[in-house]
Amino acid sequence: MMIPIRASLPPLIHGITVAAGLLIYVLATRIGKQQRRPSVALAWVLTITAFPYAGIPLFLFFGTRKFLRPPHRPIALHPDLSTSSVPAWSTRLLEAMNIEPLTCNAEVRLHKNGDDSWRELLALIDSAQHELDICTFLLGDDEIGGKIVDKLIVRARQGIQIRLLLDAVGCLGTSRKDIRLLKNAGVQVRRFMPILHNPIRGRTNLRIHRKLALADRQKLWSGGRNLADEYFIDRPRQPAWVDLSFTIEGPLAIQAHAQFERDWLFASGRQESADETAFHGQSASGSIPAQWVPSGPDHADDTIYNLLLAAACHAQTRIIAVTPYFVPNDTLLEAWCMACRRGVAITLIVPEKSNHLLADLARGRALLAMVEAGAKILLYPEMVHAKMIAIDDTLALCGSVNLDGRSLFLNYETMAVFYGKDEIQWFETWHTDLAQRSAVFAARQPSWLRDTIEGIVRVIGFEL
Hints:
Elements: H1 5-31, H2 38-50, H3 52-62, H4 88-96, E1 103-105, E2 107-111, H5 114-127, E3 131-136, H6 143-157, E4 161-167, H7 176-184, E5 188-192, E6 212-215, E7 219-223, E8 245-249, H8 251-267, E9 288-295, H9 303-314, E10 318-322, E11 326-327, H10 330-341, E12 345-351, H11 357-362, H12 364-373, E13 376-380, E14 388-391, E15 395-399, E16 403-404, H13 405-410, E17 413-418, H14 421-436, E18 439-440, H15 448-463
Parallel strand pairs: 3-4, 4-5, 10-12, 11-16, 12-13
Antiparallel strand pairs: 1-9, 2-8, 3-6, 6-7, 7-8, 9-17, 10-14, 13-18, 14-15, 15-17
Helix pairs in contact: 1-2, 1-3, 2-3, 4-9, 6-7, 9-10, 10-12
């Protein structure tokens, strides 16, 4: 019996569509070296197979997480480390991942509260003699955002060359009037990866989460703070979020400028090499060792993630950490649990309730596993937005990276690694002060429904 051609075409077309979708997935992931957890890879394959007409566009829109830029030569500012206590495992690993080498800097100032950070940021903006570069995930349509805009307009009218790089999604709420005023004053403003853009230039869900301000390529302000009220201003019954930032003078600022230059060019659709060495004046040098470590789609390796995995293996006595969101993948979670089991004391501070419900829903499984392995989990009563990890007395990381899959694998991020004893001690004291005002996490097995919801949120919210 002959089967009508009309009846056989729809299944044939459907099959061809599914096959094409799977081929696209294989080519994009294998040729592009897009490493994924098996569960996430399986989810994409099932989605493309079962719902190809929705799954293929979703994968093209969200599925790629690495967009490598042309290789650049690390800025060689080799300090004399012959008598240094800097751990070799850390510097060698970062060097193998094409991270700029460690530098010795003249001065570092760590900011434990919003007032200190705000004063330092304004002082840096006022100190600029030639150029000023700022990158932020969020520029608030509020008091702090307005003050930043006013300050930049004044400085631009004084002849300072100013570039402002904004994440297109994070700054959706930024005042359009303020942007017009900035541009009219001569400030160059670019939005990083707009929602509607050429997909060749990146995926919309790959956001720039780096926060920094640079004056004349010699002074750097950076950390976890966005430019909005909640990061700086205490209000009645609404204290400023607990966060960390720092100001540093020295060669680290040169490396941060080189990173900003590449981000600026990428936001304009250009990827040619930038002039990474020219700067006004002479770079300050000193005795404070630190290293600038970016991570994200613009690096072949997951730099911060790999560093944290290695740290879990090399830690001898302790790991202390603070993060607003704790949703690590299974490998990092297991590495930290194994460190606990071999005697490393891990103390993790997270907010009792963060500003993201999904993050709070997704963290329960990881927190429970850490407690069962012997870690100490503390809940801070207010919102904590700081990102800090210290390993023994050898190094401490501070910057923009949260301990979740989105931050570790998808966002454009940056951390500074501090190797100086004074800086590591400062972070330890700050962490102890937070711990004294925190409550111990009460670990308990979740219900079947809660565990299922947590699993779904982990995959959908933090892996795409």
